[in-house]
Amino acid sequence: MTRGATYLRLGAALSLLAGSAATIRAGEPEYDRGPGTDRDEDCLVCHAGVGEEDAPKLDVDLYRATAHGKEGCIGCHVDVEDPSIRHEEPDEDLAAPDCGRCHSTAAEAYATSVHADRHGKTDHAEDTATCVGCHGNHDVRSADDPRSRVNGVAQIKSCGRCHGEDRRAAGHRLPGEPPLVETTVDPDVPPKANPDATAAACSDCHDSHAAQTSTSADSQLFPARVTETCRGCHDRQADAFVGSAHDEAARRDGFDWAHALADSPSPGHGPDDHRGPDKDLDGSQAPPVCTTCHRMHGGAVPTSARFRADLIHECGTCHEALMSTYVESYHGKASLLGADSVAKCSDCHGFHAILGPDDPESEVSEANKLKTCQKCHEGAPENFAGFWAHADHKDREKYPALYWIYLFMTTLLVSVFSFFGLHTLLWAIREGVDAIRYRGQPRHIFKGPRVSRFSKLDRILHFFVIISFLGLAATGAPLKFAQASWASTVLGLMGGVEMAGLLHRIFAVITFGYFFAHIGQLIYHLGPELMRGRLFRTLLGPDSLVPRLSDITDVIKHFAWFVGLGKKPTWERWTYWEKFDYWAVFWGVAIIGSSGLILWFPEFFTYLLPGWVINIALVVHSDEALLAIGFIFGVHFFNSHLRRSKFPMDEVIFTGSVPEEEYREERGREWARMEDENRVEGRYVEDPNPIFRTSMRVFGVSAWLFGLIILALIIHGFVTTHH
Fold first, then answer.
1. Which tens digit of pLDDT belongs to each residue from 486-516?
2. What is the C-alpha separation between 589 and 624, in angstroms, rounded?
3. Spatial CA neighbour of 323 closest among 308, 341, 335
4. Alpha-carbon gap, residue 204 to 218, rounded angstroms
5. Torsion over CA: 112, 118, 119, 120 (sign)
6. What is the rounded distance in angstroms from the CA atom of residue 721 to the CA atom of residue 371?
7. Is residue 343 a contact partner of residue 331, using CB atoms and an 8 Å limit?
8. Which of 191, 211, 281, 654 could link 696 by a cystine bridge, Cβ 3.0 to 4.6 Å?
9. Is 176 in contact with 221 (CB distance < 8 Å)?
10. Are 658 and 453 in contact (CB under 8 A)?
11. How far apart are CA 83 and CA 458, in angstroms?
């Protein structure tokens, strides 16, 4: 079709519409052509679907309901009446509307914004926030209208066009999960009129038109100004923050925020950003402001478990030294493992009105410390406040008692593991040499009638030793090595920190049960000896577990055999390593048990003892437990079950008896004594039930496999987390 023909058809259409308009104005409406002035009716010839097919079409009903519905086309497109512009020509389209003609204040603010600064500097129009880009064109509505593109809820989507997961228009992006802004639970912030509205829209924090990057001093989120921005909704929190130690640090003269922010992430923006501003030119640590602790996008509700769990990371960013001591405490270890109920930083120091410990108004001042502790430890006595929340066992000057206890326990651990580590290594080498030397010969199977070694009560008590010790190790090791990669997984299998703690206490009760049962057993056997005046002689006799000088000779002979300088020794009723096992358990239960009771009932014990005894108890309990676990699983298992001559296990502690041939070979000195004293006949017993023996073998092998797994995890935790 020629241009002339097009003009003829357009003229005919205009004449027809002009006649229709006259009819409408005469009071006989055929069709209401839309809002605005009479001149707009001519616009609708092409833009309302009647005239030119290629012209952009306007939804008249939608436009009528908008904020600009009464303005009309010419209200925005002022150049449509310019005779020099041939609007019907495709290459002579109208200029973009100048919103500033009516909205001068908004336009002036926009001109100073980061969005205006980016305008025209990108090849992608969608990467630039303009009036039309944010508000729309023919569907502009008031921001209070839920249908508006800039309504609080809609802003998340509108702003997300540039700042979403797949876009980085402003140098950062907003997270998609969790939600950008979670609904507030602050009772001081009234709910929005719209129940579906977000607690804080983008413009509430960033400003509607004069949006700046948070590193700009003009930004509402610039650290020096952010408190007042947050005050718009959180007035009570802002009042509490003002005058706090953090606020005073933030307001100190001379701090160069611009430099601190230059190479650091904008606080609170990134979904994984735990760091706030970095450091000034002089190396001063930037003080925290609202957005340092409360991430703006995807931040959890402060009362949620997620926020509480994240607290130690947030506070630890600046308070590294204090955090290093906190994570060594029970509170810190349990927090690392996800326990919500234990004390976090804010439970003791407060939330917003945090003051230094020397300030009389501080929640951790000497005057207020007990009251703060009693929030969790109801009924705690005055001594309880003597607990050192951030004690450092390596600080000899400040915590001498803790330092010397730690040094003693460390020396004990090193000494025991050094001696028995060498002992086990040499024994394993000697067993390996013998295995190679006699590899063509089958292992000797001992024969002969069974000879009793342990009473039924001894075997029952040892069974409970196994159950309780494995349980205590499994539930306690993850807490000891809370920072290990496996700790949270292991505790998760048990049901979490609280359930593991309950199980730990149940196994502790079992431990106290067998311990006091054994004390009763000793009284039963030694009481008559005391009455006869033979107690001292019995305790130092060959049947006693009390160490004797002969044990030193046995150690020397055994080491000589390890290195091929002597014959394999034979033993009395108890070997030197069995005596060590016995007294290690006796000592361990007493020390671990008493310190565990202090940790279990700290309020009760601090009626009698100073609060810092809790700190001592934690070090003793933890290190002694580590010694016990390492020794039992690493040394005792080898001595009793894993060496070649006993593998896969020595079943005597379950059956109570061994073949006579084995007894003669291993405990020849005791056997000779029994023959001299005519006591052999009374020691013979029947063979154990085969089914019972098989079941005990399965149980025993399962126990040492379980123990070796725990030992491997502990070694991994020690290597990867020990500093």
1. 999 999 999 999 999 999 999 999 999 999 9
2. 9
3. 335
4. 15
5. positive
6. 34
7. yes
8. 654
9. no
10. yes
11. 113
